[in-house]
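ZP: hey, is the nicotinamide-adenine-dinucleotide complex queued? I don't see it on the tracker
AM: it wasn't, my bad. submitting now with these inputs:
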Amino acid sequence: MAMIGFIGLGNMGRPMVRNLLKAGHSVRAHDVVAASREAAAQDGATVVGEGSAVLEGADAVITMLPAGEHVRSVYLGANGLLAKCKAKPIFIDCSTIDVGTARDVARAAADAGLEMVDAPVSGGVGGAAAGTLTIMVGGTDQSFARARPYLEPLSRLAVHAGGSGNGQAAKACNNMILGITMIGVCEAFVLGEKLGLDHAKLFEVTANSSGQCWSISNYCPVPGPVPTSPANNDYKAGFTAAMMLKDLKLAQQAAMSAGASTPLGAEAQSIYSLFNAAGNADMDFSGIINFLRGR
Ligand code: NAD
């Protein structure tokens, strides 16, 4: 069994550490927040007060941080992982960040003779707890092969999406689809209401017709048809509107830098930006249906 360093013990990181421990690995974990370190210690991790202290004896180091700026500072800072690294663990960044930062940090790691993959995840806190995340990995064939055993206790599928940054690229594309389809599904249900259509009937038709998509079949934004969807729980997140906006911004940033035309992605970002600004940042992203009803 391996020694795994882990930095970032938040909503996603803590259950991921639990699954690594459950698989029999040892984990040296760090977070800037003392309460998060204490919680991980209760779960059975060895906690350390400095980020670079997770390197001691590590076969792999996993990071699960809020955004690109945190990843830059944890890896590239004067006391960061690359500056302090003496051995050659595989570095796995599971945070959702911009493609440019992911490629910059991986290049810095390669310049230091170290291997790194970007490995953002899909599946939310529930998937993290159940160990059923989908993980999109960017890096060399060799780095993917090294990272894979450490991703197994966390996921049901790890896809090697190509070179460095391609994991983040795949995540940006996926979540742009999700944002666009959720708005489309909500618009259709609001239109159906105005036309006198029953929610259950519209669900039955669309879930079995060409309009079918994950936002209908797994996460229907009205109460009833999908009992596990946040619509049945007053739109308690789930996946917050703030996170959806973050991911749509990353997709637009990627589209701008690559020169891709993504007009619906841009529109979805604008609509979620208004929804967030109206005080709904903590609500589940499917709650946008009420916004489209004018509430
Ligand atoms: P979170 O804010 O709950 O956790 C992030 C943790 O990182 C916090 O505990 C914070 O204290 C810690 N941290 C920040 N800077 C640090 C530093 N310099 N050193 C050590 N620790 C530091 O966020 P989360 O919900 O766990 O999400 C983590 C990442 O996963 C994000 O990039 C997010 O976009 C992505 N993600 C989240 C979800 C979700 O449903 N929550 C789903 C898929 C992907």
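AM: back. The chain has two domains: 3-163, 169-292.
ZP: great, adding it to the tracker
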